[in-house]
Every structure is written in C-alpha cells, then in structure tokens.
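User: My collaborator and I are trying to settle a disagreement about how two of our proteins should look. Neither of us wants to argue from intuition anymore, so we agreed to look at predicted structures for both before our next call. Could you fold the first one, then the second, and keep them clearly separated?

Assistant: That sounds like a sensible way to settle it. I'll keep them separate. The first protein:
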Amino acid sequence: QVQLVESGGGLVQAGGSLRLSCVASRSIFSFNAMGWYRQAPGKQREFVADFTGEGNTNYADSVKGRFTISRDNAKNTIYLQMNSLKPEDTAVYFCNARVTLLGREFDSWGQGTQVTVSS
C-alpha cells in the first residue's frame, strides 16, 4: 500500500484561503485516481475533488469555482487550493489514492487534516 500524508489545514476566517498538500510514498503515476474527500462532524464523508486516471479533474458542485486541485508529479504530491472559504467547508480533509486492478478498487487514505472556517 501507499502512505499518504496531508498537511496545510488550520483555522481561517470566512473568505480566507488555505492550501492543502498530500505527499504520497510512491509515484502518483501509479494511481488510477487521486483526490480529496472531507468529513464534517456528524456527516458522511463526501467527495471534494480528484484527478481521473486520464488526468482530468472533477469537483463537487459545492466547491466549483472556489477550490482547485493540482499536482506535482516530481514531488509525488497533490494540492487543494481552497479560496473563498465558507463555514460549511469546515471538516477533516482526507487525501485519497485509488488503484483499480482486475476490476477491483483499492483505496488508500491519509490521516486527515482539520480545516476550520469561522464566521
């Protein structure tokens, strides 16, 4: 399996920005998909943004126009630039890497980083 380490979370006021980082223990070329999920207290984990295996990006409707996912292949790292943050964005953000092999999906997760947006 792969190790994923997130960083960059913190406390920010509404309207502010944060950039999350996720460093993988091996080349991100080895993953069929890689991205970000989040989980707020008392809620289910939800999709935020990811890269497909072809390198295309996808975003949840709630973050389109505000969040941008990017990657640095040489550093085995993906990022999530979060702008115009809202209190509703408060959650633990998890990095996800997915490998699809013989029709089966294998997910790896980071430990999570807390993002708190105050109003």
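The second protein, kept apart from the first:
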Amino acid sequence: DVQLQASGGGLVQPGGSLRLSCATTGLPSGHYAVGWFRQAPGKGREWVACIDSAEHKSAEYASSVGGRFTLSRANANNTLYLEMNSLKPEDTAVYFCAADYDYGGSFHCITRKRDNEYYYWGQGTQVTVSS
C-alpha cells in the first residue's frame, strides 16, 4: 500500500524558512520520482519542483521558486525534503507531494508539470507566509 505523508508546514514571516518533508512508504526505494505542487486559495494546483529517481539527476524547479527552494531525497528512509528559504507572501499555499514509478530516470519529471501525471498523492501541508 503506497502512502505519502507531507509535513512541516506552518506560519512563517516573510524572509523566513521552512522545511517540508514527504515520507513515502510502499514505493520501491530509489525507483520513484517525486513532485511538489502547491495550491493557493482560489487558484489551481501549481507545480513547484520535482526530482527523478536516478542518482545523477538534479532536482528541477519552477522559476518562481528557483534559487530559494531546494529539493533533496534521503533514500535511506524514503523521505524527501523541500527546503524553502526567503519565503514570500505569494508562497502561501497548501503544499502537496506526489510520486510515481521511475526506473532509471525515465520519468523525466521536468516534462510532467500537471498534477494528473502523478499517480500517488499525499495530503497537503499548509504554508502561510505573513507578518
């Protein structure tokens, strides 16, 4: 049974930092891609970042968060982290992690920015950036 558990959201002031976690179970270790999406009130779900399974693959980021967000994975515990720095009020949203099978980096997550291209989803975690 595949499960994704997102956590780490909260209230932070502009310029602050948060680290989101996405704990996965039931997926083959090292053989799945993960994407992060976010949904602000009244808006559609927006792609934020992703990473393929292959060790040599780098994470990919939306232009709105590049240079501020860092996505990393710890295969030892099947957990992924989204480090968010220099947060802005416009980063306020519910953040979701999603996953799908990926063998040898064939998923090419940079080409999959629509939420219907991921099969497994976790519940969201709220991030609020406000003074």
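Some points you might bring to the call about the second protein. The chain has no helices and eleven strands. Residues 21 and 81 are 5 Å apart (CA to CA).
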